[in-house]
TrEMBL record:
<dbReference type="Pfam" id="PF00496">
    <property type="entry name" value="SBP_bac_5"/>
</dbReference>
<dbReference type="InterPro" id="IPR030678">
    <property type="entry name" value="Peptide/Ni-bd"/>
</dbReference>
<protein>
    <submittedName>
        <fullName>ABC transporter substrate-binding protein</fullName>
    </submittedName>
</protein>
<feature type="domain" description="Solute-binding protein family 5">
    <location>
        <begin position="77"/>
        <end position="440"/>
    </location>
</feature>
<feature type="signal peptide">
    <location>
        <begin position="1"/>
        <end position="26"/>
    </location>
</feature>
<keyword id="KW-0732">Signal</keyword>
<keyword id="KW-0813">Transport</keyword>
<dbReference type="InterPro" id="IPR000914">
    <property type="entry name" value="SBP_5_dom"/>
</dbReference>
<dbReference type="InterPro" id="IPR039424">
    <property type="entry name" value="SBP_5"/>
</dbReference>
<comment type="similarity">
    <text>Belongs to the bacterial solute-binding protein 5 family.</text>
</comment>
Length: 534
């Protein structure tokens, strides 16, 4: 679909002609979708470890989960590997009935026993992705008892408490932790008891429409169609994702026909190409928030007044009208728009640029003028403009901000290791419920450095509050819907005043593609490569 001009500034729209033509181009092959994307954040394809948005999108187009997101309605969960499910009367047990006759690409049978093992494996490896199970009461020690497969098509999950079933279906059943792995093939490639973690870094052994054929870090990812897939076969044989970090290069490749899809264009690029015949732009509001991550163990940020001061050092209106135009909606709450329990757009945006107020708060927190703070950021097009914008405003409040740009993989490693003072980061939840963000941005089950809870932004920022932990759990388990919604409302209002991060905007993702590519489908929670064709 065409991106409506209303989403772009009048200045940008006037800068384009009404109907430009795309230059004559040598088309990509008819059975291949070629995509340009900044994919330098990829570090592994193991479902027990992945946490990056890019990798999750690729993996969810390669490996089916128990349940899937409806491509036409992101609020609806539909059958995947499981044909249906049943929730017990007490709400503590969910029984999934899996499809019969599923097989892995190796030819091995894909049964409920392999699904149970795959879930056990996530917990046994205990890396970041295990948080998707441990926060609902599962552990490596109780998994064998609580996640069982009494026969080839029945998977039973017994929870410690009655969590909202709609939330569990999103957070577990439709998430990569519920990817069905080929146990025989994975264990045949085990190294030193790693349960195949090293092998799955560069392989996919699952049931799905595509398989990972190649990954050259910093260069390319190639997915090949699985011709024995149980569902409807994708029209495209190959998905080729080229690592292209620069938006200008992506635009040139798109208009010249070297690629079918560009994923990281700037607002100016989107304004231009949306007017060109032969190119279409699709847009979706993602459940992803971008924020200034603050290391709460670093001197100034131990005081909530210093953290609050930083919220007054951004000109949100100016950001939205310039480098965020068309790619971001200002959001200062820790819960994304569209989620159950989220504040309204107006209520979730209380801050504006106020250098004098920031100075007052910094003084109250005992932060001396001239204090130097390191700000690290990655290669996304908006990261450096944010860094420079904040640096200039902070200087007026007496802070010296040292900005350092680096590859996304390096940025993530630094933040996950708590080796930072401040960073421009993004976090995307997998659920349309306030608990999705609250359980990661606010709740922290163990703040010890050795816990290494890298998939908790709260842990990365060394933020721990027993009070807020209890409030997050209270909201999660509240059975009355209206009361639960109000608990989340107050939680957000309080966190915007004293929380560990400075939330800035929610991502609006624009995908520009050539008109020859039909059926490009995506929403906040997934892109559906299998629905595309030429």
């Amino acid at each position: 679909m065409k991106l409506r001009n209303g989403m772009l500034s009048s200045a940008l729209a006037l800068a384009t002609t009404a109907a430009l033509s795309v230059p004559a181009a040598a088309n990509t092959p008819p059975d291949v979708m070629v995509m340009a994307w900044n994919i330098d954040a990829i570090s592994t394809f193991d479902p027990a470890q992945v946490g990056e948005v890019v990798t999750i999108e690729l993996l969810t187009n390669t490996c089916d989960r128990l349940m899937e997101y409806d491509p036409e309605d992101e609020t609806n969960i539909i059958p995947g590997l499981a044909e249906d499910y049943e929730v017990s009367d007490d709400g503590r047990t969910i029984t999934f009935r899996m499809r019969e006759g599923l097989t892995f690409p190796s030819g091995n049978p894909a049964t409920a026993q392999e699904m149970a093992w795959s879930l056990h494996r996530v917990l046994q490896i205990g890396l970041g992705a295990s948080a998707g199970l441990t926060e609902y009461g599962f552990t490596a020690e109780n998994a064998a008892e609580r996640i069982t497969a009494p026969d080839d098509t029945t998977l039973v999950m017994e929870f410690d408490q009655a969590y909202p079933s709609s939330l569990v279906l999103q957070a577990i059943a439709a998430y990569p932790v519920a990817i069905l792995l080929d146990r025989e093939t994975v264990m045949a490639n085990e190294v030193n008891g790693d349960l195949g973690n090293q092998y799955l870094g560069t392989h996919t052994e699952c049931v799905g429409p595509y398989r990972l054929a190649r990954w050259n870090p910093g260069e390319v990812v190639i997915l090949e169609r699985n011709d024995d897939y149980w569902g409807e076969a994708p029209a495209l044989k190959t998905i080729l994702v080229r690592h292209v970090a620069e938006a200008a290069t992506q635009r040139l490749m798109l208009t010249s026909g070297d690629i079918d899809v560009a994923r990281d264009l700037t607002p100016e690029d989107i304004a231009d190409v949306s007017q060109m015949e032969g190119i279409e732009v699709a847009t979706a509001l993602k459940p992803q928030l971008t924020y200034l991550a603050l290391n709460n163990e670093f001197g100034p940020f131990t005081d909530p007044r210093a953290r609050l001061a930083l919220r007054y050092l951004l000109d949100y209106d100016a950001m939205e009208q310039s480098f965020l135009r068309g790619i971001g909606t200002i959001r200062q709450s820790p819960v994304q728009l569209g989620a159950f329990g989220a504040l309204s757009e107006e209520e979730g945006r209380p801050f504006s640029l106020d250098v004098e107020r920031a100075r007052e708060l910094l003084a109250e927190a005992g932060v001396e003028p001239g204090t130097r703070i390191s700000l690290i950021l990655g290669t996304h097009p908006y990261s450096m403009p944010i860094g420079q914008h904040f640096q200039e405003n902070a200087a007026e409040a007496g802070l010296t901000i040292a900005v350092e740009r680096m590859a996304n993989a390096q940025l993530f490693a630094r933040v996950r290791g708590r080796e930072f003072e401040m960073a421009v980061m993004s976090w995307q939840t997998s659920v349309g419920d306030a608990h999705g963000m609250a359980s990661r941005q606010i709740y922290n089950p163990d703040n010890a450095a050795e816990a290494k809870l890298t998939q908790y932004p709260s842990w990365r920022s060394a933020y721990f509050s027993e009070e807020y932990n209890q409030r997050v759990l209270e909201a999660l388990l509240e059975p009355d819907t209206d009361t639960r919604e109000e608990l989340y409302r107050q939680l957000q209002l309080d966190q915007m005043q004293e929380g560990p991060q400075v939330f800035m905007f929610q991502t609006t993702q624009n995908v520009a593609h050539r008109a020859e590519l039909q059926g490009w489908t995506f929403h906040g929670f997934k892109a559906f490569y299998n629905l595309a064709s030429k």
